[in-house]
């Protein structure tokens, strides 16, 4: 039944391989728990009590609330699928609420920190690849999975744009600055993909498609050179991109499109990142503030 559900996600919902892998892991975790506690492999017969017990065990094992909620979301989707094909009549996850939690505040890199990084010397082939990874993530705000999945045919440097296939197989166009285009061109000159990976834009030294783990390691390494902040992940570069372009006057609706957010609420999170910048803009723009400056 699990394989049927994952096939449904791939063929009908057209989810990315990364998303399907996450669903598989979440459901396999529940399957192991069910087998251990119920001595049965038929998770279609699970009830609300078993779902709640699963949540309790995850909590006792110090699994983060965000991760528990993701597993609950995977279970909801799975049992809705079983409802859809008529295997069950009631979902055991129905009316089970996600855990409440307050997300840890993400602190973006400063523009000064990112400039220091840009000033670093990149000379050999590996350096050029890594610089390109850092600049693409920071100058486009794309996700690490999107970077790994970038195809060569979707990078159009003459037009100054990259086509991205994002979450839910949604396509969007990201503009490329002259600065980033120059970085990408320098990488193209040393790019040497193996035959089976030639469709991917980014490849490692062996010519293979980049892994998300590799991208994370690269980002963590370079951000460690310019900051002591604890969070040094690819997502922080996405966060920094959004914060900096909004701070410099970009329209939030346009930033939403570039980031591939489905709702404006997701993008609005970044408008709260730098309240001092917002105060500065207000004081410069408000007529009362202007008159007060003249006194």
TrEMBL record:
Residues 1-83 form the Core-binding (CB) domain. Keywords: Cell cycle, Cell division, Chromosome partition, Cytoplasm, DNA integration, DNA recombination, DNA-binding. Its main location: cytoplasm. It comes from the Bacteria. Residues 104-283 form the Tyr recombinase domain. The keyword Cell cycle applies. It is found in: Cytoplasm. The keyword Ribosomal protein does not apply. PANTHER family: PHAGE INTEGRASE-RELATED, TYROSINE RECOMBINASE XERC. This is Tyrosine-type recombinase/integrase. It comes from Chryseobacterium salviniae.
């Amino acid at each position: 039944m699990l394989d049927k559900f994952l096939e449904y996600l791939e063929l009908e919902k057209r989810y990315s391989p990364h998303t399907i892998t996450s669903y598989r892991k979440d459901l396999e975790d529940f399957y192991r728990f069910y087998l251990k506690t119920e001595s049965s492999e038929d998770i279609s017969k699970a009830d609300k009590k078993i779902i709640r017990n699963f949540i309790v065990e995850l909590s006792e094992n110090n699994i983060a609330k965000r991760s528990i909620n993701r597993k609950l979301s995977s279970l909801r989707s799975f049992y809705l699928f079983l409802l859809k094909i008529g295997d069950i009549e009631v979902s055991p996850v129905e009316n089970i609420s996600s855990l409440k939690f307050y997300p840890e505040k993400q602190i973006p890199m400063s523009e000064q920190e990112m400039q220091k990084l840009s000033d670093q010397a990149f000379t050999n082939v590996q350096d050029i690849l890594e610089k390109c990874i850092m600049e693409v993530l920071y100058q486009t705000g794309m996700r690490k999975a999107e970077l790994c999945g970038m195809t060569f045919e979707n990078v159009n440097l003459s037009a100054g744009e990259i086509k991205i296939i994002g979450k839910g197989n949604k396509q969007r166009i990201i503009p490329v600055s002259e600065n980033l285009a120059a970085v990408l061109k320098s990488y193209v000159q040393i790019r040497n993909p193996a035959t089976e990976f030639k469709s991917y834009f980014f490849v490692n030294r062996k010519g293979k498609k980049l892994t998300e783990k590799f991208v994370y390691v690269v980002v963590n390494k370079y951000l460690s050179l310019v900051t002591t902040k604890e969070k040094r992940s690819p997502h922080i570069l996405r966060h920094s991109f959004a914060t900096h372009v909004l701070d410099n006057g970009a329209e939030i609706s346009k930033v939403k499109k570039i980031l591939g957010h489905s709702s404006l609420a997701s993008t609005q999170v970044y408008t709260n990142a730098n309240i001092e910048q917002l105060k500065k803009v207000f004081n410069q723009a408000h007529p009362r503030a202007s008159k007060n400056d003249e006194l």
